[in-house]
Each structure stands twice: as structure tokens, then as C-alpha cells.
Specification:
- The protein has a 14-stranded antiparallel β-barrel with strand order 1-2-3-4-5-6-7-8-9-10-11-12-13-15.
- The protein is globular, with a radius of gyration of 22 Å.
- It is 12% helix and 62% strand.
- The protein has 3 helices and 15 strands.
Length: 336
Amino acid sequence: MPPTFARVGKMRSWVLLATFCVAVTVNGQTFDVEQFEQVFRPRVRMDVRHQFQSDLQDTTGHFSNSEGSVVFTFPIRSRFEVGLKLDTTARDFGDLLKRSLQVRASQLLGSARFGARQIELGFDSVTDRQLFTGSIGLMGIKLTKKYRVLFWSANVNVSEEEATLDEATPRFNGVIGKMHLNGLRRTFFYGVGLSYTDKLTLPVPFIGGSAPIGSDWSFQYVLPAQVAVGFAPQKRTRFLAGIGLDAFRSGVSMNDARTNLNHGTLRAFLNVRHKAGNHVQVRAEIGYDLVRTVRFTEGDVVPHRYPVEPGLVAGVGVNVFFGNNVFERIMDAVVN
């Protein structure tokens, strides 16, 4: 009989999942804060990743996960206008220029994501399982009168095993936040993420930012999801190393009934991103899952928890950019 946790354990798993929703909606799996604008740039993003086989701690068998995904972000409506209106209340010439410059900018984008994964559950009679996920959503940015960037996103997603597709349960995630434009390499943002799934609504506040450490290094954070250090030895190549949370959730069939499989991990990672041209960025990542668990939850039933031994993770991906990037134009007009 698998071990059970008290309700506080259940809430902790939900906190992890909701935090992951924040991380994914805002930034993806691992996030370079200094490239925040890429989240709101029209693009096609493709990723493949493999979590190497590791032993389950409290039972015989192994766990592994191979996954791939494609994300398509496309523009729906864009606006960017720059004008001058003389402000006679300015204290000096510099203040006059700042107060008189008027920038009106906003962008609305749509997104669609499709993914599949194959997981190995060594304790189960069905050793290998095929899981599928799909989501659609909207995201947007707007420059406020005080030259802050308001950003938001909302999406609905479905993640199921083939056997449970006819019982698919939609899940809703949203994020709203505000970014302060303090320079090209110094940023600060904050907001709240909201996750609604299986009759549970959970808000998760977050703060994030970056600060330069010399000319090539930077300190970056998105709390409570990730802390990292960035290194850019040249304009087209960037390294990022840190620790962050990752997770996924999917409906699966167990004992002829639908239940939820939840996987969460605390991961150390190192990735490299290289801009191969004006419209293409390639990346590779190696990581190590320091702590991870698999949980099964059935509605309001106390979850069953299976700890997994630490293990290696590796992945590669590519971004293909296209269309109008309003965020970069805001940075050029307001920061520069």
C-alpha cells in the first residue's frame, strides 16, 4: 500500500503546481530574465527533453520521462506611437524631454501549444504511458502612463493519457504583473499567478528581476520559481545557471478510473543560448533533479506519493522569431 500524506502535503503539492503555472505562463521551463521580451515576441518554439531513468525510493521500479513540445505565438493586434507634447512643469531640460515624450504601445498575442511525453512508471502494470497536452491562450503587454509595462496572460489547457481523453478536464491558468524599466540589464517585475484545476483555485504572488554583476555577469530571480546567474561573453551567446522548480500534471487511467498524475522537481540547471541569425535562436540544457516526486490524486482523496531518486535531465530547443516585437520597441524608446 503506498504511503499517504496529510492534507498539508496535498496543499504543498498544489502550491508547487500553481508555482509551475506561474513559471510556465510567464517564462517557460528555465527563464533568462534579461530576455523577458522574447516571451511576448511572435515565434515558434520547439523543445525536446529527457529525464534519464531513476529508481523509485519506496518501491521497486524506475521512472523516466521523454517529452517534446511546439509553441506557436502569433500577433493579433499591435500599437506603437511616439509623440511629443510640451510639459511646462518640467524642472530642467532633461526632465522636459522625459515628461514631453509620449509613447503609446500595446500588443495582443495568441498562443497555441501542443506536446507529448512518454513516461516510465516501474511500479505500474502499464510500464510506459503516452501523455498528450494542448493549450490555447491570449497574452498582452501595455505601456502605462508612468512607463511601466503591464503584462498578462490567460490560457486553458488539457493534459491527458489517450485512455482518458474522453474524460478530459480543462485547467485554467492566468498571470498579471507589472515591470519597471530601469535599464537594458536591470529589471524588476511583480504580479500574481492564478491556477484553477479540479475545483481548486490557488493564487501565487511572484517577484522577479535582474541586476548586472560587472559587464558580462548578471544575477536573476523569479521567486518562488527560480534563482540564476547569467553570463554573456559575447553578444550572440548567453549562459544561465541556477536552481528552479519544474512540474507537470496529467490525467491518467489507473485501475480503470481516471486520476491525476503530478510530477514535481527541484532542479539545478545550466543552459546555453546562441543566436544563429536575426530570426533563429538555438539552445541546449543539462540539469540535475535534486528532489522529485510522483503523486497520484483522485478528487478530494489524500494523495499517494512516490519519491524518485535524483537524476540527470538534458534538452535542446530552437526559437524561430517573426513579426513585430512591440516590447523591444518599448525598450528602445523608453530606456534608450
